[in-house]
Amino acid sequence: MAGTPHPATSPPVLVASADPARAAALATALAAGGLANPVRTATSVRDAVDLLLGIPGRTRDRVPVVVVTDHRFPDGSGVEVLRAARGHLQLRRTPVVVVGHDATEAELDEMHRLGVSAYLNVGVAAVALLDVVRRLPLPWSLAPAPAVGAHVPGGLR
Questions:
Q1: From start to end of 71-121, where are the E strands?
Q2: Backbone phi, then psi, for 42, in 5-degree steps?
């Protein structure tokens, strides 16, 4: 399709979930909804922060266009991912969506203070996420994905 951005040149979406199956399901839901951006996944707070800020000695991927993170992880909280994003000049305005089911009032207050874009209940996350992401004013590639087997510039399928 002419004018459709190529996924390899589009900024990534970061999906961080302690449950690899949920991260894969969210990535699949985004792709099925027409998101052409590449999706990077992390399964811990440390991995998510490393993907956001870079790992010493290794170049960081492109700045994500949006971050979707679980609220609870064995090694911390999605609030730490949100805090890392807000503490980095290039990421301060990057939308961050937190997915959970048991945030306390104090945690919700902290997320709002830090500028969370949305807090979604885990039960509706896959359904509501694409709608929330579509409404964010972002420079990304929400576009029909190429048909399976279709020729894509650069040889990707």
A1: 72-73, 76-77, 96-100, 118-121
A2: -135, 145
* pLDDT 10s digits, 10-55: 788 899 999 998 888 888 877 777 777 888 999 999 999 998 887 6
pLDDT (tens digit per residue) in 57-70 = 554 557 888 899 99
The residues with which 68 forms a beta bridge, in sequence order, are: 15, 97
Q: Which CATH architecture has domain 9-135?
A: 3-Layer(aba) Sandwich (3.40)
Centre a 10 Å sphere on the Cβ of residue 74 and count the other Cβ atoms it contains.
8
Q: Where are the domains of the chain?
A: 9-135
Q: How confident is the model at residue 132 (pLDDT cuts 50, 70, 90)?
A: low
With b meaning 16 or more CB within 10 Å and e meaning fewer, what string describes 79-106?
bbbbbbbbeeeebeebbbbbbbeebeee
Tokens 């004013």 found at: 137
